[in-house]
Amino acid sequence: MTTADILLIEDSPSQALQFRLMLERAGYSVQVAATGIEGWRAASVMKPRMILLDIDLPGLDGFQVLNRLKRDRATKHIPVVMLTHRDHVNSVQRALNLGADDYLFKDDAAAELLPVVEQALALAQQAHL
């Protein structure tokens, strides 16, 4: 598996394609995983600069993946931005409590995806200086 800037863990093929194309147009390399377990394994192997993680995933859900990532010494430093639907506001607090760096409502992705990604990457870079 090649190293990518961003690991996108999203089970909707249309949303994964939309997000991947937006990020690639901005110059990022993106690897997509369609399930929680596939994403967790990919993160452990490729150590991306950041992870975009859907909450509603088959198998391991986003909370379970986030919990595993933040407990693992090899992946706990990777910034994670959760992807959720606006009607799951209570999920946002749970994700932040588990160690997510930020969240993005999928409805706002067209306008907010790149600024959120850039901010998460910048904060991670500052933390490693």
Overview of this protein structure:
The protein is built from five helices and five strands; from the N terminus they run βαβαβαβαβα. The protein has helices at 13-25, 36-46, 62-71, 89-97, 109-127, and strands at 6-9, 30-33, 50-54, 80-84, 102-105.
Topology:
Layout: E1 6-9, H1 13-25, E2 30-33, H2 36-46, E3 50-54, H3 62-71, E4 80-84, H4 89-97, E5 102-105, H5 109-127
Parallel strand pairs: 1-2, 1-3, 3-4, 4-5
Structural features:
129 residues, alpha/beta, 5-stranded parallel β-sheet, 5 helices, globular
Mean pLDDT: 91
Query: Order of strands across the biggest sheet?
Result: 2-1-3-4-5
Shape type: globular
Please bin the fraction of helical residues. Answer: 40-55%
Order of helices and strands: EHEHEHEHEH
Q: Please state the structural category.
A: alpha/beta
Q: Termini separation (Å)?
A: 27 Å
Uncertain stretches of 5 or more adjacent residues: none
Q: What is the makeup of the main sheet?
A: 5 strands, parallel
Quaternary status of these chains? single chain
- Tally of DSSP helical segments: 5
Instruction: Estimate the strand proportion.
Output: 15-25%
Tally of strands: 5
Cα-based radius of gyration, to the nearest Å = 13 Å
Q: Summarize this, please?
A:
The protein is an alpha/beta fold.
